[in-house]
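Assess this one:
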Amino acid sequence: MITWTSRGFIAALALAFLSACEGMPAGTGALAAKPKPQALARATLGKGAVTLVPPPGYCLDRSSIGDGFALMARCDALGAPLGTAGGAPVGFITVSLMRDQGKGTLPRAVQTARALGLTGISQETEQAGILTYRAEGPPPAPSIASSHWRATGRVGNYLISVAVYGPANSRTITGEGRGIARMVIERTRAAS
């Protein structure tokens, strides 16, 4: 199963992204010493086998990209010109990638929830080889809602896991978040 090994990194980036999206000054305290993240429209993961493509209005944070992990936020929060986010909701997306063990079925929401310590699994749906569901879990930052959307699917020989987070009462934690999670997998499949 996919686990978070960089929770502190994600929390720091989430706070900076959400502050930037809300027009508040970012870069105070521990964040002041870090360079401003840079927006990318796509990146390759899985030793070049997977081309990760964000949904419209979101970009990849160059500093977060590893061979099996990436973080996305609204493009304007990542330093892209104002207006590049369009109407994208405030929030951020994490993507994890791992080699598929060839078992044929996607991990069920309850399996992922158990591995990640999540609860409150609801609205589980599988369509076109993409499993989506809502989950509850410890938020990666204080300003983020505990409820979030997750999606799992296959891209080539890899399993991809997407989580969409946002502040309480944001559009990212409504049904729109489900669509965002699906779109990451669909666009990545199309590009890979």
Observations:
- The helical segments are 7-21, 109-116, 175-191.
- The CA atoms of residues 43 and 185 lie 14 Å apart.
- Residues 1-34 have pLDDT under 50 and may be disordered.
- The chain is about 20% helix and 30% strand.
